[in-house]
Design a protein that fits this description.
This is Phosphate transport system substrate-binding protein. Pfam families: PBP_like_2. Keywords: Signal. It comes from Flavobacterium xueshanense. The chain has 306 residues and is an alpha/beta fold. It folds into two domains: 124 residues, 3-Layer(aba) Sandwich (D-Maltodextrin-Binding Protein, domain 2), CATH 3.40.190.10; 134 residues, 3-Layer(aba) Sandwich (D-Maltodextrin-Binding Protein, domain 2). Helices cover 41% and strands 23% of the residues. The chain contains 14 helices and 13 strands. Strand 1, helix 3 and strand 2 form a beta-alpha-beta unit.
């Protein structure tokens, strides 16, 4: 009888414990809003400098903490599929095949285009040549000798720059000779600055926004002007040439948000695509999706009135 009398109380306390446990389990998600909380974002390493700038301003403006995880393009994309990450920043959109995988998982990624950058070629400052033809680069990637190219230096064999040039060259594997890789864009710039004849392949924002300790290496390389496959003129990867679609190696940038709820992924994407974020893109030398408006105040001086 005594045990029977205690049974309702036991069930009551178990129910309370279950509710408390569920609330604690959902606590982290409840604490995160579009402008508050913490989140991890995987970013294509070639885009790290501009995203670091965006994160610094975002964190200063809101009660948010974003942990940037800088990886190769392949690792960044895989973070979404192996569920290590739910927010990624890439220099390409998801493919139809990748979108189908998310569809099968009943996930609808929110994709936000936010700017355009470029793949840049750099050579040692002592190099006599400041020009390079994209056809020569493609031929070299196909395994053919090119007198003007001693070697191509990439940041990582799984990087977006390698994937980009492999796509242009129509190849699945890179040649065994003449192509070198390191781990980061900084290492590429350092190697080229010390080795005449080598051509580095980097994201252009590593040149426009170098870290203080990298400035001396960036100063010791030249950014090469590029002639497109069907073009006659050579163009630098300047903001103006990217905007006018003259530079042949421009690429659009995207934030891929797979959170599935109103979290920091949504807030950060809105920030980067908004007025402040677009101004940061513009100031960096890259091309924003939309040019921020400028307000002018026109006043009459005393001389105008006379």
């Amino acid at each position: 009888m005594k045990n029977s009398a205690k049974l309702p109380y036991l069930i009551f306390f178990l129910a309370i414990a279950f509710v408390v446990s569920c609330n604690q389990g959902n606590k982290s998600k409840e604490e995160e809003t579009i402008l508050k909380g913490s989140a991890s974002i995987y970013v294509d390493e070639t885009l790290t400098p501009i995203i670091e700038d965006q994160v610094a301003v975002f964190e200063n403006k809101y009660e948010a903490k974003i942990s940037l995880i800088s990886k190769s393009e392949s690792e960044t994309v895989n973070s979404l599929f192996n569920k290590k990450g739910v927010i990624a920043i890439l220099s390409r959109n998801l493919t139809p095949e990748e979108l189908e995988i998310f569809k099968q998982r009943k996930i609808n990624p929110k994709i936000t285009p936010f700017g355009t950058d470029a793949v840049a070629f750099v050579a040692n400052r002592n190099s006599q040549n400041s020009l390079i033809a994209l056809n020569d680069v493609i031929s070299f990637m196909q395994g053919n000798p090119v007198s003007s190219i001693k070697g191509l230096v990439f940041d990582n064999l799984n990087s977006s720059t390698v994937r980009y040039l492999k796509s242009l060259a129509g190849i699945k594997t890179i040649p065994e000779k003449g192509v070198f890789s390191f781990k980061t864009n900084d290492e590429v710039i350092k190697h080229v600055s010390a080795n005449d004849g080598m051509i580095g392949v980097v994201g252009v924002n590593w040149l426009s926004q170098p870290k203080p300790d990298m400035q001396k290496y960036v100063d010791n390389v030249n950014t090469l002007s590029v002639k497109g496959v069907n073009g006659d003129n050579y163009y630098l990867p300047s903001q103006n040439n990217i905007a006018e679609k003259k530079y042949p190696l421009a690429r659009d940038l995207y934030i891929i948000n797979c959170q599935g709820y109103s979290g920091l992924g949504m807030g950060f994407a809105s920030f980067v695509g908004g007025d402040i974020g677009q101004r940061i893109i513009l100031k960096s030398g890259l091309l924003p999706v939309r040019i921020p408006t400028r307000k002018f105040t026109i006043t009459k001086s005393q001389n105008d009135e006379k």
